[in-house]
Design goal:
Layout: H1 3-6, E1 10-14, H2 17-25, E2 34-38, H3 42-51, H4 53-61, E3 70-73, H5 78-85, H6 93-112, E4 116-119
Antiparallel strand pairs: 1-2, 1-4, 3-4
Helix pairs in contact: 4-5, 5-6
Length: about 120
């Protein structure tokens, strides 16, 4: 099953090596353990997108995170993504909260030495 069929609009990190291998293939063939930070609605996604959060992560990490894409953030670029997420200056409380939760998820991905994945 394609990753976007299981996860839509959010960021995830694998909990173990099995999950990391499945996610890296972008095709899930067995049950896996992940931490999932969903974006609950298209309206919320638009607010986050308009805040520039994903664009800052793209610039810092050389990625192409965009709508309707699945992107792997390699472990060796996670510290750059954390710094970019911490620069969120949105006045919207939901966007600020999402940036804080993104930072936390990325910190845990860094500590576990696994990539993180954006499924938008």
């Amino acid at each position: 099953m394609q990753m976007s069929q299981l996860f839509r609009r959010g960021i995830l990190r694998p909990i173990d090596d099995t999950a990391a291998n499945e996610l890296s293939s972008f095709h899930i063939t067995q049950p896996i353990l992940v931490e999932w930070l969903p974006i609950p609605s298209d309206g919320q996604f638009q607010l986050i997108w308009d805040s520039g959060l994903f664009q800052r992560i793209n610039e810092a990490c050389g990625l192409a995170i965009s709508d309707f894409e699945e992107v792997e953030l390699p472990w060796n670029r996670i510290r750059d993504a954390i710094q970019a997420a911490q620069q969120s200056r949105s006045q919207d409380p939901h966007v600020r909260a999402f940036a804080v939760m993104t930072t936390s998820l990325l910190e845990r991905a860094w500590q576990s030495e696994h990539s993180a994945f954006f499924v938008l």
